[in-house]
Each structure stands twice: as structure tokens, then as C-alpha cells.
């Protein structure tokens, strides 16, 4: 009986250790992803995404499907429009083996154009939001960002 209980205890500890390691891996992955954004390197940031990743910006409403679309239509746009951007985690994340959720702050100066129709304003911006990220096989397969678009737009004078 004692041997069986010890075996169960070791299995439970092993499982917990494995879950803790997976959670650490998820946090390390997102830390690297955010560091690439903060280094203003869209190509490096995209290496953290799965080929079939989905990037959903709730204020836009249309998901970007695939690594290339996320890189070109979200990451490059933000880095181009806010070349001095800083994206930082502002609260302890909620981490699991296959995902992470966290509050963040994004700041910088809009010194680049958002698009051909939306030129730079030259204004500083700072806004907070939340990201929900799902991870599979060491890559981000889903990112959902939720933030105050009205406050963001007011800061830029739109």
C-alpha cells in the first residue's frame, strides 16, 4: 500500500513539475515575442507565430489568418507607425501549458504613417489592453488583443 501511495505521489509531483515547466515555457515564449516587438523587428516577432496563426485585434474586428498576414498587417503596421514603440506587461500573467493572458501597456510616438490614407500625427500615445495568447508546439497559434480604441483614436486626434 505504501509503495502504491508513493508511486501516486511521484506521478502527481512529476505531472505538476511538467505543468510548471510548460507554463514557464509559455511565459518565456511571450517574453521573447514582446522583446522582438520592442526591438522593432517584425520579422523576428513573426518567428514566434505558427504558420497558421490567427491574430485578432478586437478593435479592427477582422482576424489576420496566417503568420505572413499577422506580420504584414499588424506587426509591421504598428512598428512602422510607432517606431519607438514600447510594449510591456503590466500585471502578473495568467499562464497555463497552452496559453497566457496578461494586461499590457503600449506607448510611443506616432511618427510613421499607419497607411497611405492615414499619415503620422506626430503625437504621443499610450494605451492599455489585454492579450489572450494560445500556444501549440512552441509557437503562438492565436493572439487576441482587446483595448480601448476610442481612447487610442482620441490621443491621435482622429
TrEMBL record:
Residues 1-22 form the signal peptide. InterPro entries: Cyclase_SnoaL-like (IPR009959), NTF2-like_dom_sf (IPR032710), SnoaL-like (IPR037401). Gene3D superfamilies: 3.10.450.50. Residues 30-142 form the SnoaL-like domain. GO terms for biological process: polyketide metabolic process. Keywords: Signal. This is Polyketide cyclase. It comes from Aquipseudomonas alcaligenes.
